[in-house]
Design a protein that fits this description.
- This protein is mostly helical.
- The chain has ten helices and no strands.
- It has helices at about 1-5, 10-20, 25-40, 45-55, 60-75, 80-90, 95-105, 110-125, 130-140, 145-160.
- Helix 3 runs antiparallel to helix 4 (about 45-55), helix 6 (about 80-90) runs antiparallel to helix 7 (about 95-105) and helix 9 (about 130-140) runs antiparallel to helix 10.
- The longest helix is centred in the middle third of the chain and has 16 residues, at about 60-75.
Length: about 160
């Protein structure tokens, strides 16, 4: 029904492909994923699912091509990179977290959670000046007063006043 309303809605083509794949109709699934990518070359679900489908079918070169394409696409997403940074932070790999957060902030400058985690990461590597700057930016960027206050009190408890 979604495709009848808007045949240029790429996620509907991806969903149709997933349905076909689940039912074992792999050639139809492939066609739906390819159509999704014709409509929107950045449709990540179609890219990723095509990679999985080609791997299942033993077409490893195509699988690798689509998997690399979807990986490159994900790595350009600041929120995906934030997720990687969060995972790195909890794994105590603070330098990797900082790297991902710097990328995220180049792409999306108005997300206070990016600055906050960056500040915590800098604190863990002993860079208090960079930590303070990032935590202050988290406080300034936050839209909610309660969140601003939370960031301020966290900064004060972690770094004290200057």
């Amino acid at each position: 029904k979604a495709l009848a309303v808007d045949p240029k809605f790429a996620p509907a083509w991806s969903n149709l492909g997933a349905l076909y794949s689940d039912e074992g109709h792999y050639s139809y699934a492939e066609a739906a994923y390819v159509r999704a990518l014709r409509v929107d070359p950045h449709e990540l679900v179609a890219m990723s699912n095509l990679g999985q489908l080609y791997k299942f079918k033993g077409e490893l070169d195509l699988a690798e091509w689509y998997n690399q394409k979807s990986d490159r696409h994900r790595m350009r997403n600041p929120y995906y990179r934030y997720d990687l940074a969060e995972n790195a932070f909890f794994a105590e790999d603070y330098e990797t977290a900082i790297k991902h957060l710097k990328y995220s902030l180049r792409k999306e400058k108005n997300d206070d959670s990016f600055y906050y985690l960056l500040g915590l990461s800098y604190l863990q590597v002993g860079n208090e000046a960079a930590a303070r700057k990032s935590l202050e930016k988290a406080e300034l960027t936050a839209r909610d007063v309660g969140l601003k206050n939370n960031y301020h009190s966290k900064m004060e408890s972690l770094l004290g006043t200057h």
